Automatic annotation (TrEMBL):
It comes from the Bacteria. This is Uncharacterized protein. The lineage of its organism: Bacteria, Bacillati, Actinomycetota, Actinomycetes, Micromonosporales. Belongs to the RuvC family. Signal peptide: none annotated. GO terms for biological process: DNA recombination; DNA repair. It comes from Micromonospora deserti. The keyword DNA damage applies. InterPro entries: RNaseH-like_sf (IPR012337), RNaseH_sf (IPR036397), X-over_junc_endoDNase_RuvC (IPR002176). Gene3D superfamilies: Ribonuclease H-like superfamily/Ribonuclease H.
Amino acid sequence: MTELRMVALDLSLAATGVAATHDHHGRGGLLARTVHTARTAHGHTDMDHDRINAVLRDVAAAVKCRPHLVVVEWLPQFDGKGATTLRLAELHGVVKHWLHAQRIRYVDVHPPEVKTWATGKGNANKTQVLEAVVSTYGRLLHVDGHDQADAVALLTLGLAAYGQQVVPLHNPHQRRALGNVTWPTLATESGPVVPV
């Protein structure tokens, strides 16, 4: 079986969670980190280009391992005021277009599937997701905060979709979350890998 290289992104304007199966040198091993980005003065446009560039630089570093797939948490539903929804959509669009231009395959996973995978409940809050991820995967890697927990949940969900689960699957809710995502066939050095 081909050992998949995978990166997971919980994109955020302030703290993007990144989890991966390999480091930027291609060495195997689970890792998670947070990319903190501060708001900048963005001059004559509403788009904060410096902030988006900071996230994009870290995404570029994460995908130096040439992942077979990048798993991205889809935009959450916001009822918020202001331009947060638009700014986050801009970030998602820029990152996903950049991945596409680099010929790096990505898949979107809706937040309820991430929560269901981690906790069994599609409406779990961030603290419940963090606690569940630390409980399940904390012996394998350090998970520091909600952003990393979401990224680790995305990564382990993606790996399980291709039969490379990090821990055994025991709960029907995990299979339900897997089935609610349209997983692509992956091109690898050893040939195509299909979801199980």
